[in-house]
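Service request form, structural biology core

Requester: graduate student, group of Dr. S.
Request type: structure prediction, single chain
Budget code: on file
Notes: please return the result as structure tokens.

Sequence provided:
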Amino acid sequence: MRNANFTHLGIFLFLATITGCKTIEPGEVGFKVKKGEIRTPVFTHGIHLYDPLVSKIVKFSTRITEFTTVMSPPTKEGLDLKVSLTLLYHIKPEVATNIYTQIGKDYGRKIVVNNFMAIVREYTMKYTAIELLNERETIEKNIEDKLRADISTYGIVLDDVLVKAGFSAERRRKRSGVVYQITLMSRPREPIGFFAKACSDAVYCTYMKWIREELKK
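Core staff response, request fulfilled:
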């Protein structure tokens, strides 16, 4: 009896050493790659066995991923905008194998982030700094719609695009050894009361007129 127990224990230990297992957490999916070929089905959360000598289990997160950066894209007239951007996205579980085959696990940088930055640069180069300020909400919506359309073909879902409310732009030019710096501020959206609104409009118009004159120099 004791010998039989030792035999069973030995078999169990032997199988444990030659069989691998991987845990798929909630918010993840996985699939087996055996000898370079993807095997279905796609695994959901739980413990899954595989042969580590000839196969592996690849995991993909289906949770919302956040990407944040500060860009300095140029405007139409040569200003370098400083814009804080945040991007939220995730993949659909059923497209994990296709993304792995076509792009790889670095799909976030290759498809989402690179596309996002290219679209932002494309739009900022079409407008002057003042146009970007006055039409900021429309431009943000256009950027979001184009990015959503570009990445949706891969099964990637765009959850949100957040752009910092204040734009800071700098244009540096040397004149007699002096470096000039122009800073553009967002116009207040909700001034309080008639007097505050009148003051806000007057200051804003004066400020924009000064910027236009500076850009002509």
